[in-house]
Amino acid sequence: MNFTKNYDVIVAGAGMAGIAAALEAARSGLRTALVEKTVFPGGLATSGLVYFYLPICDGYGRQVNFGIAEELLHLSYQCGPGEVPANWRQSTREKPLGRYRVDFSPAAFILALDQLLTEANVDIWYDTLICQTIVETGCAAGIEVENKSGRGSLRASVLIDATGDGDVAFRAGCSFDEETNKTTLWAMQASLERAREAVERSEGTRLMSFHQIGSEGEEIRSDIKAKTYPWKGTDGRSVSHFLLKGRSVLREHYEKMRAKGYRRQDLFPVTLPAMAQFRTTRAIRGRFTLQAGMAGQRFEDSIALAADWRKRGSVWEIPYGCLIPSVPGLVTAGRCLSSVGDAWEVTRSIPIAAHTGQVAGIAARLAIARKTTPDMLPVADVQAELRRKQMPYHLADLTQEDVK
Ligand SMILES: Cc1cc2nc3c(=O)[nH]c(=O)nc-3n(C[C@H](O)[C@H](O)[C@H](O)COP(=O)(O)OP(=O)(O)OC[C@H]3O[C@@H](n4cnc5c(N)ncnc54)[C@H](O)[C@@H]3O)c2cc1C
Fold first, then answer.
1. How far is the CA of 36 from the centre of ligand 1 (A)?
2. Which residue puts its alpha carbon closest to atom 3 of ligand 1?
3. Partner of 82 for a Cys bridge, out of 4, 77, 233, 320, CB 3.0 to 4.6 A?
4. Domains in the chain, please, with CATH?
5. Contact present, 12 and 163 (Cβ < 8 Å)
6. pTM of the prediction?
């Protein structure tokens, strides 16, 4: 090994889940490493150009996510454009006009996140790929990483897998559920039309313009016809082919626009995503798996609430077991927590990644304090901490005012 270092907590992946986990751990005084293979914080939300912070309310005026998930929502527009609907600016208890969500500039969010993480004393390792999980006597004990310094090992009492793909748990030998993906590419573009609108309305936000393949904007006909989507984000070759396909569809789009009379200098791509935009790759098979039909169900070991971004009024409880893979010493959060099908559609959103990330950070801290591992931690201890932080985890705990 070219280098080794010891921490209390290692957070693998600096997406929204990893950032929240690292903030929670570092703010409580733990020596915390945040290891990220790209050069940016934010994961899909920034490198992936996914610029919609989905709602942290149920659509009927009840806020469901608090803590770091809410803090990051507000941070997302601190350095650039974006704003929450007026009814959510002053009070969380007013009548709903719009859902508590925000659109933001990924680049502006990166600048703000760097500052927040640095101020919290998180030891950030950018441009560092996690290659292996170190498992000793059946327990996850560290990771092997590769960066410009060569190969190194980082060790910690608790590892938090926030890689979105469950890379750390996968390399520790945990089992998974997987899904395939449709052809997707969200790209930022410069558009003279939008620039004119921005000037006319005196609204700089209009300058942020996107072309989206694999969304309502441009669905790929072969994907729609296919019974299953073609792309697997867990197969190394498939990842390259997915990226090449998306970019070839984008090239065709601009060729079509030229044919329609749009000049090269008036409409063109400016930023492409710096990571593959897979919605679903690996979800760990945890102690409990959230599934379709469980919306609104009460779980005694619930640690989070998740509002369905597609449907007002539909809120899910997320059990602690969804964060617990089969190998001790590990806890997961975000896109790779244990949920499948329709439940995955809900749990993989930005606010839920942030919320479960914070819970993973809490679990890491409590496990270290009690000299145990997250899987052995009494969930009542985690819930007590959530109550202390005023983060509700049962539907019944939400205030009933304003419910229509
Ligand atoms: C096309 C698309 C549209 C979406 N639309 C929305 C939307 O509108 N609103 C919304 O809220 N959500 C949306 N989502 C979902 C949401 O963006 C993500 O699910 C969420 O951001 C996931 O956060 P995460 O932290 O769990 O994982 P990720 O964002 O995937 O972050 C994981 C991080 O880990 C790093 N990493 C992975 N493997 C390694 C490794 N081996 N070594 C080191 N680092 C590693 C990655 O580089 C990344 O930074 C969308 C997703 C996609 C793909």
1. 12
2. 50
3. 77
4. 3-178+281-397 (3.50.50.60), 185-271 (no CATH)
5. yes
6. 0.96
